[in-house]
Automatic annotation (TrEMBL):
The gene is recQ. Its EC number is 5.6.2.4. Keywords: ATP-binding, DNA damage, DNA recombination, DNA repair, DNA-binding, Helicase, Hydrolase, Isomerase, Metal-binding, Nucleotide-binding, Zinc. This is DNA helicase RecQ. PANTHER family: ATP-DEPENDENT DNA HELICASE Q1, DNA HELICASE RECQ FAMILY MEMBER. Its cofactor is Zn(2+); Mg(2+).
Length: 557
């Protein structure tokens, strides 16, 4: 079998080798298993269902939300000599009839359909009557309210698993938020699916976070030696975008503003000038970027805090498409957290508020992290890393490390003892021997860890737990009130086989930090700011009804 999928790869698609994890995914799907693929756009998800479609009997049904995408895929397949077709609202009845005829004659390998079409009664009857190779669900995040592009017509797709229990299902998305992913698995009824998360690392991008002090001065310092390079500066509001662009021009930079409030023509001009390298810097709101595919963007600066780790990843990902070294700089300040929070709280929908506060919370945790930025970022998407990147701000100027093995063992065994059923706040209460009522209600034999951590403050335990989440020893499930769980990496630590070094919080280690070459003379003081932020984050979490921790890595997703 393995040889023949390579033949298919070569002869049909014209490629010489699979990318990880294509081959493994393809083999599983051919074997009839469900798979959930989380890979960035361009990662190569399509092959993961297209090759199995050619190796399994029957037609592969591909659900895709956008007619334009469907058409591109089908045209590409036809060009490779694959029998593919699509059914959507743009077809005239005669065209649709012809597709059905080819299907009935067993001539089709892949059929692309819109989700609303798939679940029409007549179509379902048809599906039940013919052999099906597989279901592929592209843009699977559309099924989740947690995702950024919820589509009601996707929610019915959960029925596929019930109606066709034996047909393998391949769900795909590039939108990788862990919460959304859990929800997708649940909604599609494929909790047993093997989850693949791959390809999120952008090794040529260097990640840096600076405490925001005098942002324009910091920006100017950053740009001083980059006058001739192309870059994007993201800011939160249209007003700020205009203002920063103007100040940059006043300082002699080639900069223009871009936001949704500008006339179409002006926006096109900016985009075009940037593309042709006639313009160096675009100062923009998040409205800029969807359509641009400029290879030589050398840096992306976040003048204000992005609203989620996904947005941050998407936006920084616009740098360095050509593979050359590029930089991501985030200016991170407390005021932004408050602004973001009040914007979120303007929403009428309490569920939306809860979701967005959590996302903001994760973003703040990333910015505050004492662990390698790349590792934290990839961990957020579920890609485990066991080494530091060596070129982010944390790696370049690491916080003081201390052997925290003993404290770590206490936390891990406490999480274990309480049956991996409680959130951080409760675990800390148990560790510190709190007299709270919930704890008293627990059975005595579960509480052998009661009070073993009275030597550290709640704040210190909080910090340790957060680092353990970032480092991938603990998981936190927000779909279940932030319950902490152990990852496989926790086992050797519990057994005392490996030591764990943690970063000493900079707030206590050193308040004033020396200026760094990258910031070109701008003084930073992490400490005080971070302490205030921590308190603030706690408040956000309290109000959102969740503990002040985020999922930064998760062994299963
Ligand atoms: P995604 O759906 O994940 O965004 P695609 O499936 O559209 O990505 O693939 C992105 C690009 O990568 C396409 O041009 C595709 O032909 C190419 N590609 C995919 N797999 C391979 C491979 N194994 N070798 C070479 N090119 C590949
Ligand atoms: Mg795709």
């Amino acid at each position: 079998m393995s040889a023949s999928i390579h033949d298919t790869l070569r002869t049909v698609f014209g490629f010489h080798a699979f990318r990880p994890p294509q081959q493994e995914v393809i083999e599983r799907v051919i074997g009839g298993e469900d798979v959930f693929l989380v890979m960035p756009t361009g990662g190569g998800k399509s092959l993961c269902y297209q090759v199995p479609a050619l190796h399994r009997r029957g037609v592969a049904i591909v659900v895709s939300p956008l007619i334009a995408l469907m058409k591109d895929q089908v045209d590409g397949l036809l060009a490779n000599g694959v029998a593919a077709a699509c059914l959507n609202s743009t077809l005239v009845p005669a065209e649709a009839r012809s597709v059905f005829q080819r299907w009935d004659a067993g001539e089709l390998d892949l059929l692309y359909v819109a989700p609303e079409r798939l679940l029409m009664a007549d179509f379902l009857e048809r599906l039940a009557a013919v052999p099906l190779a597989l279901f592929a669900i592209d843009e699977a995040h559309c099924i989740s309210q947690w995702g950024h592009d919820f589509r009601p017509e996707y929610t019915q797709l959960g029925r596929l698993r019930e109606l066709f229990p034996d047909v393998p299902l391949v769900a795909m998305t590039a939108t990788a938020d862990p919460e959304t992913r859990r929800d997708i698995l649940r909604q599609l009824g494929i909790q047993g699916a093997k989850v693949y998360v791959a390809g999120f690392d952008r090794p040529n991008i260097t990640y840096n976070v600076l405490p925001k002090q005098k942002p324009f001065v910091q920006l100017e310092a950053f740009l001083r030696n980059r006058r001739d390079e192309a870059g994007i500066v993201y800011a939160l509001s249209r007003k700020r975008v205009e203002e920063v662009a103007q100040r940059l021009r006043d300082a002699g930079f080639s900069a223009r503003a871009y936001h949704a409030g500008l006339p179409d023509r002006e926006r096109q001009q900016v985009q075009e000038a940037f593309r042709r390298d006639d313009l160096r810097i675009v100062v923009a709101t998040v409205a800029f970027g969807m359509g641009i595919d400029k290879p030589n963007v050398r840096y992306v600066v976040h003048y204000d805090l992005p609203k989620s780790v996904e947005s941050y990843y998407q936006e920084t990902g616009r740098a360095g498409r050509d593979g050359l070294p590029s930089e991501a700089l985030l200016l991170f300040g407390m005021g932004d957290v408050m602004t973001a929070r009040s914007l979120i709280e303007n929403s009428e929908n309490p569920e939306r508020v809860r979701i967005e506060l959590q996302k903001l919370n994760a973003m703040v945790a990333y910015a505050e992290a004492l662990t390698c930025r790349r590792r934290a970022l990839l961990g957020y998407f579920g890609e485990q890393r066991d080494h530091e990147c060596g070129n982010c701000d944390i790696c370049n100027d690491p916080p003081e490390r201390f052997d925290a093995s003993e404290a770590v063992r206490k936390v891990l065994s406490c999480v274990y003892r309480v049956g991996e059923r409680f959130g951080a706040r409760h675990v800390i209460d148990v560790l510190r021997g709190s007299k709270g009522q919930r704890i008293a209600e627990l059975r005595h034999d579960r509480l052998s860890t009661y009070g073993i951590g009275a030597d550290l403050s709640g704040e210190e335990w909080d910090n340790i737990i957060r680092q353990l989440i970032h480092l991938g020893y603990l998981t936190q499930d927000f779909s279940r009130y932030g319950v902490l769980g152990l990852t496989p990496a926790a086992r050797p630590v519990l057994k005392g086989e490996v030591a764990v070094l943690l970063g000493r919080p900079r707030s206590t280690a050193r308040v004033e930090e020396r200026s760094r070459s990258r910031s070109r003379g701008v003084k930073e003081s992490r400490g005080g700011l971070f302490e205030v932020l921590r308190a603030l984050r706690k408040r956000i979490a309290d109000e959102a009804g969740v503990p002040p921790f985020v999922v930064f890595s998760d062994a299963t997703l």
